[in-house]
Amino acid sequence: MKDYPLNMRYGKSKVHVMKIINPMNDENSKFRDVFDFDVEVLLQGDLESAYTYGDNTPVVPTDTMKNTCYYIAKKVHFDSTEDYAMDLADHFLQKYPHIDQVDIKIEQNSWNRINVDGEYHDHCFAFGGNEKHNCHYRANRNGNSKMKSGISYLRVMKATQSGFEGYPMCDLTTLPPTKDRVFCTDIMTTWTYGDNPPKGKFQTKNMEIRSNFIKVFSGPPKGGEYSKSVQETMYKMCCTTLKNHPEVDFIEMTLPNIHHFNFDLTRFGMDNKNEVLFRSDKPSGTIECTVYKDEATKQENNTYENYTR
């Protein structure tokens, strides 16, 4: 029964994959690299009969999708989650002619190689905490693929050299202007590469872009750089990255303002100016922006509204 038009897709999510790699390709070597990530697979194509008539003929079981995630992890060599995502998407397009589009979304956990007496260990790692590396690859049969990479929950802080003043004041404004405050946030950002991104270069590019964000946020090691607002700083972070990486089309960024306030010590006869503080992250300011390399890219991005969410 088909009563109303529809769009449709389905897939498998929260597929945990860990791959231990011997990059030396030497059985006697104890050196290992680790990839640890969760995968989501979403398929689109000639699936309407499954929804409108209960015809399961075109429905690739989600259990098959899960198995495929492990199969591709074993079959192919990859140096980044982006490379793995491209191989995984290509597999579904090649194997199932009725599938027109594949979305692969990956969230990667970080494991940092342990340093023992100044030397990095061959095969021991410490969990990297809340920070995640993300990617979202969309592949379709018209060859117009898109790769989005990103970072989430990278917590950074300026202990000084940040202020906020000059804003509209009204009868409901209680926030006092300041030239010196703590600026703490979790960097939540994605950057979208141009059409048909090349494989094999993502790991280096991602490290460079992450480093660029931190460098601009911090400013020079001696003295830093004053931030007039979260908005100003995030825009600088995005602009500098676009300038240094022309292969990136646009950057989306969210910086929640994780507030830190002075604890009132006057009742104990003590002054306290940005020395003893407490965190108050609920409610928090949420500052967002999307910065494009040019106006044409901004207009084109409207076509990928569903992709960017």
TrEMBL record:
- Active site (record annotation): K12 (charge relay system), T62 (charge relay system), H259 (charge relay system)
Q: Name one GO cellular component term.
A: peroxisome
What are the binding positions for urate in this chain? Answer: T62, D63, F164, R181, V230, Q231, N257
Coarse class of the primary localization is other
Biological process GO annotation list? purine nucleobase catabolic process; urate catabolic process
EC number(s) on file: 1.7.3.3
Binding residues for O2, per the UniProt record? T62, N257
Catalysed reactions, as listed in the record: urate + O2 + H2O = 5-hydroxyisourate + H2O2
User: Which controlled-vocabulary keywords does the entry list?
Assistant: Oxidoreductase, Peroxisome, Purine metabolism
Please tell me which top-level EC class this enzyme sits in: oxidoreductase
Q: In which pathway does it act?
A: Purine metabolism; urate degradation; (S)-allantoin from urate: step 1/3
Q: What Pfam families has UniProt attached to this entry?
A: Uricase (PF01014)
Positions with a binding annotation for 5-hydroxyisourate: T62, D63, F164, R181, V230, Q231, N257
Q: Which GO terms describe its molecular function?
A: urate oxidase activity
Q: Where in the cell is it found?
A: Peroxisome
The record's family statement is:
Belongs to the uricase family.
Question: In UniProt terms, what function does this protein have?
Answer: Catalyzes the oxidation of uric acid to 5-hydroxyisourate, which is further processed to form (S)-allantoin.
Stated name of the protein: Uricase
State the species of origin: Nephromyces sp. MMRI
